[in-house]
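Memo to structure team: turn this sequence into structure tokens by end of day. - J.P.
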Amino acid sequence: MSLRRSAAARLIVAHLVMVAASTALVLGFLYWRVGGVIDTEQRAVVEAEIRGLADDYNRAGISGLARAIDTRLAQPQTRDAIYLLADAHGRRIAGNLAGWPPTVAPDTGWSTLSLFRLDRNRPTEISALAVRLPGKELLLVGRDVAARAAFDRVLGRAVIWAILAMTLLSLATGWAMVRLMRRRIGAIDGAARAIMGGDLASRVPLRHSGDEFDRLADTLNAMLERIETLVRDLRTVTDSLAHDLRSPLGRLVRHLRDAQAEGLDREARIGLIGQAEAEAETVLSTATALLDISRVEAGIGAEQFEPVDLAALARDMADLYGAVAEEQGISIAVAAGDDGPVVEGHAQLLAQAASNLIDNALKHAPEGSTVTISVTAGEGEAEFAVADCGPGIPAEERARAVERFVRLDPSRGGNGAGLGLALVAAVARMHGAALRLEDNAPGLRVLIAFNTPGVQAGP
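Reply from structure team:
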């Protein structure tokens, strides 16, 4: 892979550039500040010395000032000091310079010069301040800037070594960071490739460190769980369709062929056509139910969510199924207050889910019993439930009962395609709710529990 195309290489280079730039800025600021402090201190010392020498001049005259300069030059700590006392014509009286510099005028501020000292045979860079004494004599005091140049050289070498050290350190930390990222990204890549190879159970490994990679792995694993569930459901649907539709389609073809037989009377022919029509209706209802489940699983219709009063929904369902239940000798009771809980949802899909629950209850409730539609509300939750007094579903079979094409025999098998509760479960998931099957003692109680912040009290 080309370095220009490598994200790792670009990351290391960017890290290196930022570290080098920040190091250069810090050391540059340090040099500027330290150099400024040194220059300020040196000038303050020179100005203080001029004031002190002026006092010597006032006390002892020109000869006393010359002795004071000679005394200072004899001290080891003044080896970088520059002193020159000259008469009004610039001739040397005392000091370590041969004569007055022609380019320096007294009382004009600081000057930087290259001069020969008496104790050295090469030019010396000095920074000096010159004044004229009351007797017209000239006094120059300064400092050899060689020490400052030496400081600059030392600091320059320190900057070079610091930048070199920071470069090596940044390369090391960049390499370690990239290695960590590659290892974690490699785990994600490995899981993705395994899934591409058909291993849908593969997951991104977690380190349980709680860092950004673990949070990303959690999100990806949740997505992979969902994908695996959808693929498994798709396989189940495909296999179940092949199994469940083969029989009604075979009967449909057989009834149509029998209806074409010669010598068949009109009444028998009409009967066979009616049977064929019933089989076609079964196939159509199965396909419609599967299409409805697929649309719900895909979240189609989520943009049509609106406030839905669960108590009003329960009463509407009871009115809708009241006549059907009465024909079967079953009564429908509603346990819901006038002001029921209100949830954000798809009114039509919630009504379809409630219809499936009531239809299932009526199929299995014994004659003379009661099907109860109840709505309850608590703190931040609401439940819509349908209960019957039928044979119920064993606890170990309830998880399977909400899967597609599952028909539990013999108690609740019926003649359906086994998609009613699967659609209810899909609608519940779409609304962030949970579908639970409970024992009604006797019978079955199926409830949709809404546990979202969207639940609120009714108007």
